[in-house]
Amino acid sequence: MPELPEVETTCRGLIPLLQGRIFTKVTLRRDSLRYPLPAFFAERLQGKQINSLSRRAKYILITLKDDPAVLIIHLGMSGRLRIDPVKDFQPQKHDHVIFTTDYDNNISYNDARRFGMMDLIPSSALPTHSLFKNLGFEPFDPLLTGNIFLHKLSNRQQSIKQTLLDQQVIVGIGNIYANESLWESQINPLRPAHTLSLAECKVLLKQIRLILHKAIETGGSTLRDYQHPNGQLGSFQKQFQVYNRALNPCQRFACKGVILKSFQGGRSTYFCESCQI
What we know:
Elements (H helix, E strand, L loop, with lengths): L3 H15 L4 E6 L12 H5 L4 E7 L2 E6 L2 E8 L5 E6 L9 E7 L3 E6 L6 E6 L23 H8 L6 H5 L10 H11 L12 H20 L41 E6 L2 E6 L5
Antiparallel strand pairs: 1-6, 2-3, 3-4, 4-8, 5-7, 6-7, 9-10
Helix pairs in contact: 1-6, 3-6, 5-6
């Protein structure tokens, strides 16, 4: 699933090509993704000028000029947005929604598994919408301090790894970056979240931010489906220390441990048996 770095990279890649442009045509090649598309979805977008693009958690938000609606896009497990010139354009398999702009570009939403979603809602309804009202802090929010992070974890009985995946605590972190951040922090992912000290919370928060920043700068991680809108692949997977490295030696200096793999909540967890405590 695209996590915060992949969604942020996608959003940044789209801004120069979409901001200020007009949707001249919206083509629906099916009427539903994970959920049915809104009624009159194409008609409501055609002719509208794009005001801004931003990210909240793992959602891309597109506001429209002189229109109160916000277009919400979630990439799901395998979704991506691809840019192609209109000239000689041929839809690909699993292209479900195609946005054509006055810049003579097509932006195609491609999603083999169809776990993604799109919606159109009034911007005033965003804070209370079911998708957004319970979201936690953005990782880079300066208001998220070590003390607040500690408070968020203080009554959490589940493991710290599972807690990091909880979007009501902190948003945008998925399985890859939870594993990597915990390794960098030398914290065992199986530990109950409420057992972390203030010092450990500060270290973990710092490492989360560093890992996410590095991942954004390298275009995210491409394991299967993810690509930038221009077709390039992310490269942060080349820097993985633990993820997908089961039974390999730990990369930490002077550590002689081995990377183990377990399962939590149906997802793979990777950690060093020796240096993560």
